């Protein structure tokens, strides 16, 4: 555990001593700020978090498919792209992997650092609900469940991004690969229209998009939580495996 | 301390090393000598557990590098050829991080970090970002992290490459002194370096070991004969004939230097000690002995002989 923490601490200090974390935070705040404002410009001119969380802006500029989770999806692979790709490019992976450290510890430490960075990111957006609470009495339930959904989805995005980072020496390639995998997951429910019955149900369940809308509406389903946690665990596991096979290449 | 048995490593179809075996005794400094792309780095990466061999085993301090990998890795300090360091950390932060990876307690980390910083004379740069250090200082940081946990085995891949001549001399001295506390394996393609630092040399070429011996033995062993060069003033035919009759001399070649001064190159049986006899013979004959020299083959010669294949396919 101390090793995982040591690795996570090192990664965090790299995030915050370089522009990466700040650039990503700024980008996230700009996008989510737009989403927040968008609901104000909609037909109902209503200050709410529905635009931010669910993309439901009732006629706002941004469509329904764009919400905070989608912005997080776009930024997740950027946040994680350097975690393993850079180490292998600079050769520092050689010292990391020849230290008495398990591959699992390396991966978990890196994943933890990305999770903490994302948590900070989400905490920064709390000023939207704080604004609402200050001036009105919004429905607290969907806001909390929406944030829970964001956190769970964010963890999944980061696990995919970390996996992509283990595949190549290039940060750009890692980011793009991560993004492609995530977009496939996100939009796979579009394909559900071509099927009926069980395949349709499966495709709709696999896509995290609909699940997030549920969270934003205040619906917390146990199977959704289990599904997202399992997906995350699978990609963390794949990352560990990918790091192991890197030794064999 | 290190037992390497029948290591073979393929990269696809390419054979990087083939059937490499050698032992390193505790406290020894062993040099791994070979031209570029001979398989030195591959061998070191396998010893340190960075990559597994395709075939064969490595044991470090009794631990199998694959089966007891963590235990084995705990006994190793490693300096990769490229000296990869985190440039966004200061020297002290970096050493602290490496100490954590090796599971050192806070007290041990503090004490050992202070010690290696002093030992590597990095005091003035302890709080400098590694990215700002020159190559020579990075090399020192690299060695500092390798000895941080006081490992039994030090593996140094080309430790003197890319640093200036003064630093090279310092580094060699340092490695020698490290050899008193650690078992050291280092790789190099610089020939004089092995005779300066190493007690034993493993010569590797095209992925195969071609010789393992002490540097001074390599020359005698590989030549199979000793050469003596003589410069004599006197009737050359007579001189050559009498030289041939000396016990232990196999062959005499001569080359004119000036007037009746000739240089004679004698091939002798190894260890026959012919030089006493040669000197007295020439003096007794009343010839002028201008020069007498035993020719030892330089490491360069041996190296070439070992690694460059004879056109006729003669045994090396």
Protein traits:
heterodimer; A: 249 residues; mainly alpha; 0% strand; B: 316 residues; alpha/beta; Alpha-Beta Plaits; 6-stranded mixed β-sheet; 4-stranded antiparallel β-sheet; 35% helix; disordered C terminus
Topology:
The complex is a heterodimer of chains A (249) and B (316).
Chain A: H1 2-17, H2 19-41, H3 50-54, H4 68-90, H5 92-98, H6 103-124, H7 127-135, H8 140-167, H9 171-187, H10 198-206, H11 208-216, H12 222-248
Helix pairs in contact in A: 1-6, 2-4, 4-6, 4-8, 4-9, 6-8, 6-12, 8-9, 8-11, 8-12
Chain B: E1 2-11, E2 14-24, E3 29-33, H1 40-47, E4 55-60, E5 63-64, H2 69-74, E6 76-79, H3 91-101, H4 106-119, H5 135-147, E7 153-157, H6 165-178, E8 183-188, H7 191-197, E9 200-205, E10 208-213, H8 215-223, E11 226-233, H9 236-245, E12 249-258, E13 261-268, H10 275-284, E14 288-295, H11 299-307
Parallel strand pairs in B: 3-8, 3-9, 6-7, 7-8
Antiparallel strand pairs in B: 1-2, 1-4, 4-5, 9-10, 11-13, 11-14, 12-13
Helix pairs in contact in B: 3-4, 4-5
Q: Which two chains form the greatest contact, residue counts included?
A: A-B, 24 and 26 residues
The gross shape of chain B turns out to be elongated
Low-confidence stretches of chain B: 310-316
C-alpha Rg of chain A, in Å? 19 Å
In whole angstroms, the N-to-C terminal distance of chain B is 30 Å
Task: Estimate what percentage of residues of chain A fall within beta strands.
Answer: under 5%
CATH homology superfamily name of the largest domain in chain B: P-loop containing nucleotide triphosphate hydrolases
Number of strands of chain A: 0
> What share of the residues of chain B lie within helices?
25-40%
Order of helices and strands of chain A: HHHHHHHHHHHH
Judged by helices, strands and strand pairing, the structural class of chain B is alpha/beta
Give the strand line-up of the largest sheet of chain B. 6-7-8-3-9-10
Q: What is the strand content of chain B?
A: 25-35%
Number of strands of chain B: 14
Average residue pLDDT of chain A: 86
